[in-house]
Specification:
This protein is α/β, with parallel strands linked by helices and about 325 residues long. Helices cover about 25% and strands about 30% of the residues. The longest helix has 14 residues.
């Protein structure tokens, strides 16, 4: 779920821009990470500017509730959630298109127990995980329904039959973006090894669309040591509950329940979807079973690569 401070939340949610590329397989998405996560200097400030990740406690509790022994963290960002689970003995595969965020993730305690993949959910290796997550509204970075559906199908293929996908989406009726401005988000901290950093968010535009509002905003970061100013623009899609449920049904999921966010009641939809059985998926469908490479394999470190030790968006930023 998200933090009470809307500015930090929107900072975590802005991860990537996505697009379907002509001439590539229909379920392949090109993920273009936002500068906030793929610029090394900005990525290094992400965790210090958003230190309270108690929002992840709810996801960790659901991992335990569902008895998941293997988890796919989609949009893992700087790897906070992936490392948290790995420290509890869960087998974790974490994927993100932002190389700079993955570099941060690799430095964290427990990172050596996580399988990091630089890429996106449409180009994963063979997996049979118990649970997949998209924390911090990673699900909203997919701007078209086709892009979101391609990601959902990729996640579905990585789940064992009966495995679950858990993610959150802001209720568009609550218009959270109305507080994404400098008045609500301006903050300054001193980061060890970096120095004073000031950052704020500005709302750029809100465009109504049949698929749900498209909200564009800009984070500005000022580094006090040299005065350098860097900006990062992001766009999120706010789909309503019915549209999300229809997309899940069309991509091989059954919606088991839609929960309220305990830290933001009435403001978010928390979807719990179950992967429907598919022909040919009977093998390796036991909880915790993971096919193919394990952490430490030597495959190349390229976006969409089948394996490799690459750190995990998010912003979410997880």
């Amino acid at each position: 779920m998200s933090l009470a401070f809307p500015g930090r939340w929107s900072r975590r949610c802005a991860r990537t821009k996505t697009r379907l590329r002509a001439g590539r397989p229909a379920d392949t998405v090109d993920a273009v990470p936002d500068a906030l996560f793929d610029d090394p200097r900005l990525a290094a400030t992400y965790d210090p500017l958003d230190p309270d990740r108690s929002d992840l406690d709810v996801y960790a509790a659901m991992v335990e509730e569902f008895g998941a022994r293997s988890v796919l963290d989609v949009g893992c960002g700087t790897g906070t959630f992936a490392c948290l689970l790995a420290g509890r003995g869960v087998t974790v595969t974490a994927v993100d298109p932002a190389a700079a965020s993955l570099d941060v993730a690799r430095t964290k305690p427990g990172a050596d127990r996580v399988r990091w993949i630089h890429g996106d959910a449409t180009a994963l290796p063979a997996l049979r995980v118990d649970l997949a997550t998209m924390t911090a509204n990673v699900a909203q970075v997919f701007l078209s329904d086709a892009e979101f559906a391609a990601t959902l199908r990729g996640v579905r293929a990585a789940l064992r039959p009966g495995g679950r996908l858990v993610f959150e989406i802001r209720d568009p009726a609550r218009r959270a973006w109305m507080e994404w401005d400098r008045e609500h988000t301006d903050t300054e901290v001193t980061i060890p090894g970096i120095g004073p950093v000031r950052t704020w968010c500005d709302l750029i535009s809100v465009r109504d669309d049949p698929s749900g509002p498209l909200v564009t905003f800009r984070w500005t970061t000022v580094f006090g040591t040299d005065g350098e100013v860097r900006t990062s623009d992001s766009t999120l899609r706010f789909r309503d509950r019915d549209r999300v449920e229809n997309l899940l049904a069309a991509t091989g999921f059954t919606v088991a329940e839609v929960r309220d966010a305990p830290d933001r009641p009435g403001r978010e939809f928390v979807f719990v979807a179950v992967a429907a059985d598919q022909p040919g998926t009977a093998a390796a469908d036991q909880p915790g079973a993971v096919a193919a490479d394990q952490p430490g394999t030597a495959a190349a470190d390229q976006p969409g690569a089948v394996a490799a030790d690459q750190p995990g968006a998010g912003a979410g930023a997880s």
